[in-house]
Amino acid sequence: xxxxRMRQDVQRTLRHLNDNALIDAMRAGASEAWQEFMMRFRPxxxxxxxxxxxDNSDINAYVDQVLEEAALRWAIDGAAPPKNITAYLxxxxxxxxxxxxxxxxxxxxxxxxxxxxxxxxxxxxxxxxEASVRDSNGPTEDETDATQGALERxxxxxxxxxxxxEARILAQLADGLPHREIAAELGLSYDAGRKRIQRLCARxxxxxxxxxxxxxxxxxxxxxxxxxxxxxxxxxxxDDAV
Length: 242
Known about the structure:
Elements lengths: L1 H14 L3 H9 L3 H21 L4 H21 L8 H31 L7 H5 L2 H5 L6 H19 L4 H11 L4 H8 L3 H24 L3 H20 L6
């Protein structure tokens, strides 16, 4: 019976600590301090999120992510907390919401671009997303421009064999949308959606070599170089997305 009583005493002590002292307790490894941190700031952020019309289905995830990132930064990384922690967390939540909204709109534009049959950018360009290009060992600016043009021409060739929905799925994969969410949008179970995505990726891989052979020799050089650079990224990203 003593352990529950001791735990209650610890929790009562933590509740009376100021914010900075609480973070010091978190740094010292007190698990109860981490719980107190969440309990202290979570209701304030939830109330703020609801007041600023954050979608009810998203608010809990937004708040948890902001709190976890702040706790790790201050307690684990050793960063100095701001003078007004509550105000900082409220600003962080607002910024996080704007970032998610901006990313959602950007992703929607990319989906529209990928499914627009009259646009020069499409499925293959979506697969080789901007993030992947940046991670491909840093081509020069001229090389990037040349590769972009080659990919646009390659995508036109591949899209001749793809439907609108298939191009949209590839764009979603390029943006890192989990298989589970893609399956839900398609009205399929997770397993059925995953199998459909795997078949589509396999189909695209089969289409790419033929399309590459139809490019000019200069375009082929740029595309083949980029595909070699992206091979590790595609292997762990597109095929293993969950």
